[in-house]
Amino acid sequence: MKEKFIATIAIIALILSVLAIILEVSYQISEIEPSKIKGVAWTSKNDGLTSGLDADRIDNLESDQFLRNDQSGVLDGDLEVNGSISYQPITKYYTLSAFDFVPKRQDYSSEYYLPGGGTGFGLRNTNEYFNDQMYFAPVHLPDDATINKLYAQYTKTNENAFLIINFQVDTVDTKSENFANHQLGSYDLPLKNFSFEPSFESDYINHTVDNNNQKYSIWLSLGPFDDRDDVIFYWITIEYTVTNL
Fold first, then answer.
1. Residue 181 in 3-state DSSP?
2. I want to staple 125 with a disulfide (CB 3.0 to 4.6 A). Which of 22, 82, 144, 222 is the partner?
3. CA-CA distance, 94 to 100, in Å (whole number)?
4. CATH of the domain at 176
5. Number of domains observed in the structure of the chain
6. Domain that holds residue 177
7. Is 53 part of any domain?
8. 111 occurs within a structural domain
9. Mind listing the pLDDT tens digit for each residue in 135-191?
């Protein structure tokens, strides 16, 4: 009887020893430093963005099934947003060349002209007897765009000649069908030799486009001159920003 009791005690002691060893090994494994493992150990100490580990999937979805906030992406389907969306305005440019302008008075002389040196086609008033010649071009910009600035390229080498740019908006009263207009900007351009860079840059205009019963246009006024290179207009560019999706 005594021998059985001793044997039972020995078996229990052995079992306890094995359990102690298992617990000790488990504890040591949980405390293994990543530096002691070949490769990267993923533990509670390095979990997260700085772990350097990539998950193959998120909720069983591939990474290309998600939109990223740091690059462009394509969404197939509808997007419903509860709240507001913030985004950066986009700057765009609307350019009118000399060929986009037509004379207001057809009986006045005007021509499109290629100056010497291959500097590009320009618009001239060849009339020497009338005060000036007006040229007109419509402007088509999207609703709610913000007009920032005007840029123009021209040459003006005679101080007695003139070149005036008017940026105009006409408002139509649908009831009376009367027009009312005002200038978004009027610019009497100074002397300037030809340059491939813009010859003129306006101040900030800050006007929001409203195409509801409104029409926008650019008007040029070219004075008379004797020398065919005195005043030549090449192009004008409108800088604007859009903020609607």
1. strand
2. 222
3. 12
4. 2.60.120.260
5. 1
6. 90-242
7. no
8. yes
9. 889 999 999 999 999 999 988 888 877 888 999 988 876 555 555 678 888 899 898
